Amino acid sequence: MKKVAIIGCGNYMSQCFACPGDWKCLKSATLGEGRFEEESQVIAFVRCECPGRTVAPNTGFAFKLAEMKPDVIHLSSCMAIAKPDCPYHSPEEFAEMITAKTGLEVVLGTHEYM
Ligand code: SF4
């Protein structure tokens, strides 16, 4: 079973546009649905905060505190796919920043639930 970390858009979570960050990503990872290739263990859930400057270092810090690294990192669907999108960075820019910090692959998206 793969170990994964999820990074979610804190703005979406606090505004509750569609999801308060409490089940869709986690269900999709557990069942291996959506953008997850297989049933996956979530070892970290990191909340991005505007304007997104701290997300890469915070993600690296989460792995340090957990004393483990995931096999892959997913940007949540609200961060990578949903509209309105992030006004500060594209999903590809986030992925580049996070890969540069962690050395890990970043998948754009998590669940496909409405
Ligand atoms: S920087 Fe973008 S992705 Fe991060 S919390 Fe703000 S709006 Fe969401």
Summarize the topology:
Elements: E1 2-9, H1 10-15, H2 24-31, E2 40-48, H3 55-66, E3 72-75, H4 77-80, H5 91-102, E4 106-108
Parallel strand pairs: 1-2, 1-3, 3-4
Helix pairs in contact: 3-5
The structure holds iron/sulfur cluster.
Task: State the main characteristics.
Rossmann fold; alpha/beta; 4-stranded parallel sheet; binds iron/sulfur cluster; 4 strands; 5 helices; 114 residues; single chain
Description:
The chain has 114 residues and is of the alpha/beta class. It has a single domain, classed as 3-Layer(aba) Sandwich (Rossmann fold). It is built from 5 helices and 4 strands. It has helices at 10-15, 24-31, 55-66, 77-80, 91-102; strands spanning 2-9, 40-48, 72-75, 106-108. The chain has a 4-stranded parallel β-sheet with strand order 2-1-3-4, sandwiched between helices. Helix 3 crosses helix 5. The protein is globular, with a radius of gyration of 13 Å. The chain starts with a strand and ends in a 6-residue tail after the last strand. The mean pLDDT is 94. Bound molecules: iron/sulfur cluster (SF4). The site of iron/sulfur cluster (SF4) has 11 residues, from helix 1. Iron/sulfur cluster binds next to helix 1.
